[in-house]
């Protein structure tokens, strides 16, 4: 039995037919349920763990939002606190989500995994789960795109004495054994975890990837506020210069910690963090790194300055009053490229893999996936009638996989479902005349 409102038991749901089954009970799935309830459409949300469990179980202790609180705009549940330009910490995020869960009061079947989705010749979907089989006219896949943690085979060759974990398993510096910590990857999670360890006084070795970075504040405001005014967050994917290619981009690293600030890996290096390029191999007891640290740091800084230059242009074009512009200049430079690190001599006691996740939609039997395993869709609507996706990065806009844009996407998908159901009723009535 769920601890959340409106629980559904396997016994009460088993074998039933629904107009819509939603696979996934995170903020995306619950947002779909919100609009389905408004439309009076019967449905079931199926969640393999508990609703919004990722926020509770796969975030480190000091985790906080990297976008300001005002962007928390789940449907019917905008941010209600007194710090719209602050950054909610983990416990505050959970409180926010708990309020949303209670408000939506979705029909949820928890601790139930969807194992197979297939559309029959009659257009009805069979949805097999660990709690039995259901049928539905429409299926909305709201399980996100981050399913299988990426850990390279190289991990198998590290000494057994080294503790290894994926970023979703990290909680705090205190939970790691003594010794230096190797963090592999410098995207949002990697950069923030490296910062968390660094602030805790741990020796950190960071394998720096190609992730870009951005400023937290620029010319008197949060960069997110500027970009919102510039319309960036309303830009649909088909208008982005990269088109669908933007979905493959790594998120910019920045932090909301302690009121928000830049993450400057160069400054960390000046304070003792060891930076290397991309981790490539392990040979004869030594880690092998690509000689691309200098290029990776420069590329991240170039993106930082390019975003700020765009803000400068916007301010000038609109005649706005703001503090003067500035340009980031490196506070530290590598003396050269270091490409090897002896594992034993380095004192590394733990490794945190922060190189992302792979999607796993193998349970969906439908011809909608490309060669990389991602679904082909237009704003979440696939070429297969009755099958939809939601909550994926850049499904429609930048905010599609975030609190800020999920409402718009869920409303759109549910409107398509409602129209399809109404058309079916009208066709049935016409045929019966």
Task: Walk me through the topology.
Elements: H1 10-13, E1 17-23, H2 27-39, E2 43-46, H3 53-57, E3 73-74, E4 77-78, H4 90-104, E5 108-109, E6 114-119, E7 125-129, E8 132-141, E9 148-149, E10 163-166, E11 180-184, H5 188-199, E12 204-207, E13 217-218, E14 221-222, H6 223-229, H7 265-270, E15 274-276, E16 279-283, E17 286-289, H8 293-317, E18 340-342, H9 343-346, E19 348-353, E20 357-358, E21 364-365, E22 387-389, H10 406-432
Parallel strand pairs: 1-2, 1-8, 2-5, 6-21, 8-22, 10-19, 11-12, 11-19, 12-15
Antiparallel strand pairs: 3-4, 6-7, 7-8, 9-20, 13-14, 16-17, 17-18
Helix pairs in contact: 2-10
CATH architecture of the largest domain: 3-Layer(bba) Sandwich
CATH topology category name of the largest domain: FAD/NAD(P)-binding domain
The CATH superfamily of the largest domain is FAD/NAD(P)-binding domain
β-sheet strand percentage: 15-25%
> How many domains, as an integer?
2
CATH class of the largest domain: Alpha Beta
Number of helices: 10
Shape: globular
**Could you name the ranges where pLDDT drops below 50 across 5 or more consecutive residues?**
1-5
N-end to C-end Cα span: 46 Å
Tell me the major beta sheet: 8 strands, mixed
> What percent of the residues sit in helical stretches (DSSP H or I)?
25-40%
| Class by SSE composition | alpha/beta
Protein name: Putative flavoprotein involved in K+ transport
Pfam family, one: Pyr_redox_3
GO molecular function: flavin adenine dinucleotide binding; monooxygenase activity
Keywords: Oxidoreductase
């Amino acid at each position: 039995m769920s601890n959340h409102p409106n629980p559904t038991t396997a016994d009460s749901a088993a074998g039933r037919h629904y107009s819509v089954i939603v696979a996934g009970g995170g903020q995306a799935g619950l947002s779909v349920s919100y609009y389905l309830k408004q439309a009076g459409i019967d449905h079931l949300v199926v969640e393999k763990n508990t609703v919004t469990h990722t926020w509770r179980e796969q975030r480190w202790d000091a985790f906080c939002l990297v976008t300001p609180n005002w962007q928390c705009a789940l449907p019917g549940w905008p941010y209600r606190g007194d710090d719209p330009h602050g950054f909610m910490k983990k416990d505050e995020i959970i409180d926010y989500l708990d309020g949303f869960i209670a408000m939506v009061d979705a029909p949820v079947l928890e601790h139930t995994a969807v194992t197979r989705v297939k559309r029959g010749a009659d257009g009805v979907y069979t949805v097999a789960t660990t709690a039995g089989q259901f049928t539905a006219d429409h299926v909305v896949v709201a399980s996100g795109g981050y399913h299988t943690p990426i850990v390279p085979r190289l991990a198998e060759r590290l000494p057994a004495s080294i503790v290894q974990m994926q970023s979703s398993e990290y909680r705090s510096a205190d939970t790691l054994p003594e010794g230096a910590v190797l963090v592999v990857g410098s995207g949002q999670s990697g950069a923030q975890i490296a910062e968390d360890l660094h602030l805790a006084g741990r020796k950190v070795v960071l394998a720096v990837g190609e992730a870009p970075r951005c400023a937290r504040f620029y010319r008197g405001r949060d960069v997110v506020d500027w970009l919102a005014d510039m319309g960036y967050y309303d830009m649909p994917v088909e208008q982005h210069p990269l088109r669908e290619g933007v979905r493959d981009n790594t998120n910019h690293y920045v932090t909301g910690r302690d009121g928000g600030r830049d993450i400057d890996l160069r400054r960390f290096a000046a304070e003792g963090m060891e930076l290397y390029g991309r981790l490539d191999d392990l040979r004869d007891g030594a880690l092998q790194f690509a000689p691309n640290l200098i290029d990776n740091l420069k590329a991240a800084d170039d993106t930082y300055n390019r975003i700020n230059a765009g803000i400068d242009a916007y301010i000038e074009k609109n005649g706005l009053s703001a503090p003067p512009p500035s340009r980031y200049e490196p506070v530290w430079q590598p003396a050269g490229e270091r490409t090897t690190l002896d594992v034993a001599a380095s004192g590394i006691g733990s490794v945190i893999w922060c190189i992302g996740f792979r999607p796993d939609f193998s349970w969906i039997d439908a011809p909608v996936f490309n060669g990389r395993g991602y679904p082909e869709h237009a704003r979440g609507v696939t070429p297969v009638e009755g099958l939809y996706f939601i909550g994926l990065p850049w499904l429609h806009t930048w905010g599609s996989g975030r609190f800020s844009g999920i409402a718009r996407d869920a409303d759109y998908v549910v409107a398509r479902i409602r129209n399809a159901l109404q058309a079916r009723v009208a066709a049935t009535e016409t045929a019966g005349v």
